[in-house]
TrEMBL record:
Protein's organism: Champsocephalus esox
Protein's name in the database: Lipocalin/cytosolic fatty-acid binding domain-containing protein
InterPro entries reported in the protein's UniProt record: Calycin (IPR012674), Fatty_acid-bd (IPR000463), ILBP (IPR031259), Lipocln_cytosolic_FA-bd_dom (IPR000566)
GO function terms (MF aspect): lipid binding
Domain Lipocalin/cytosolic fatty-acid binding: residue ranges: 4-130
Lineage top rank: taxon: Eukaryota
Pfam families named among the record's database cross-references: Lipocalin
Membership in a protein family: Belongs to the calycin superfamily. Fatty-acid binding protein (FABP) family.
Length: 132
């Protein structure tokens, strides 16, 4: 499957601005910008196993496309939502539990890069990962 593999953060685009809009304080934004995030993705049909390892935490998540699940961001923000597949793109729609606002995200593989894009209240950001 296209997403399967081990991915390591290579660079960010407007990620700090996005985190600020999310209400994450400056110290946590600075730390998160340099979290050395590694993501392992394993897809089997419509089921995904994701392992995220960073300087701050290790988290494993299992989800099925189209099925709502709960997720907590590294800063503790709790979300509820689901992923769907549109062509070669994973699309996520998650509502914050604290204010009900929508966070959307996509994942797509282009060449040897996994590009994860985010949008929250009109602020866009990207995290670009390389296979390792």
């Amino acid at each position: 499957m296209t997403f399967n593999g081990n991915w390591k953060i290579d660079r960010n685009e407007d990620y700090e601005k996005f985190m600020e809009k999310m209400g994450i304080n400056m110290v946590k934004r600075k730390l998160a910008s340099h979290d050395n995030l590694k993501v392992t993705l394993e897809q089997t049909g419509d089921k995904f196993h994701v392992k995220e390892t960073s300087a701050f935490r290790t988290l494993e998540i299992d989800f099925t496309l189209g099925v709502t699940f709960e997720y907590s961001l590294a800063d503790g923000t709790e979300l509820s939502g689901s992923w769907t597949m549109e062509g070669d793109m994973l699309k996520g729609a998650f509502n914050r539990k604290d204010n009900g606002k929508l966070l959307t995200t996509t994942r797509i593989v282009q060449g040897d890069e996994l590009i994860q894009s985010y949008n929250y209240e009109g602020v866009d950001a990207k995290r670009i990962f390389k296979k390792y």
